């Protein structure tokens, strides 16, 4: 939980209780058809070329591939087992609520820098979108710090994202890989790095407008040398400033 005081949490809880009461009286709210982002990630972000990540749909295999390895990714199958390819890993397809859409891509430049981008579009169930702080430790990553990253945007304004400093051990050795992991949530006309604002808006829309917006979650990860952390953050800001206008739908 973000340590910004208990008042925002109490407001969210009150809205959720009110929403549950209202839903019991007026029925399930309508799910909006509009989303605030594109359903595909761009092939190019500045000097970075992107390749979608595909997963074998067979749970016993679940191998991941870059779409650039196939002549026609839409008809390709897993080279190892012949299984179908999917944009989600099998465990995600099993656990994420119906209606959730996921697309991921690696971006690389000629200098060896790379970024990993995840786009998740939620459905009716708000559990489609969850804080990465809840699942990253289960993937062997330790979160060393959490703060808001401010990124200047072309034409003025700033993008605010939640920035996590994460670390993962390499095998059983003392060596470690350091990464910056940043994320935020988007709906038509709304953006926030806070899950509590996300839940507050969801609850208020259900209660007041009897409507459910389709929110999206964007995450960007970038490995870095801890001796050059400031340089890494500038690269992250530059990538975010280039990515955002390519995925945002005008509202």
Structure overview:
Helix content is 25%, strand content 36%. It has helices at 7-26, 90-95, 132-135, 195-209, 229-247; strands at 30-35, 44-45, 48-56, 64-66, 85-86, 101-108, 114-121, 141-152, 158-169, 176-187, 190-192, 211-214, 216-224. A hairpin with a 7-residue loop joins strand 3 and strand 4 (64-66). The mean pLDDT is 86. The strands form 2 sheets. Strands 2, 3, 4, 5, 6, 7, 8, 9, 10, 11 and 13 form an 11-stranded antiparallel β-sheet that branches. It starts with 6 loop residues before the first helix and ends with a helix. It has one domain (7-46, 100-247). The protein is globular, with a radius of gyration of 19 Å. It has 251 residues and is an alpha+beta fold. It has 5 helices and 13 strands. Helix 1 (7-26) packs parallel to helix 4 (195-209).
Write the layout of secondary structure elements.
Elements: H1 7-26, E1 30-35, E2 44-45, E3 48-56, E4 64-66, E5 85-86, H2 90-95, E6 101-108, E7 114-121, H3 132-135, E8 141-152, E9 158-169, E10 176-187, E11 190-192, H4 195-209, E12 211-214, E13 216-224, H5 229-247
